[in-house]
From TrEMBL:
Lineage: Eukaryota, Metazoa, Ecdysozoa, Arthropoda, Hexapoda
GO MF term (any one): structural constituent of cuticle
Source species, domain of life: Eukaryota
Cleaved signal peptide residues: 1-16
GO-annotated cellular components: extracellular matrix; extracellular space
Name listed for the protein in its UniProt record: Cuticle protein
Keywords: Cuticle, Signal
One Pfam family linked to the record: Chitin_bind_4
Amino acid sequence: MKFLIICTLLVMSVYASPLLYNTNQQGSGDNDYMFKYFVKEQPIGNNFGHREMRIGNQVTGMYYVLLPDGRVQKVDYVADENGYRPTVTYLNP
């Protein structure tokens, strides 16, 4: 009997606990962010970077990388409730 009471109290305490995460899905600004990084290492030949920003439910950004043939592949993108929409371009040296 004591076991049943303890289990009941435990279940009730779990359901009565407040939510510990943000349930707002309307883009209140709490999850907005921005970051960027760029790497250019001449002796090795590394040249790449990434920039991204989120405002509300929309993420925009771009990234690029130096390809082995000397071209730079650049991807500009938007991601939101309509999906991920990239635009890929290639820049000649």
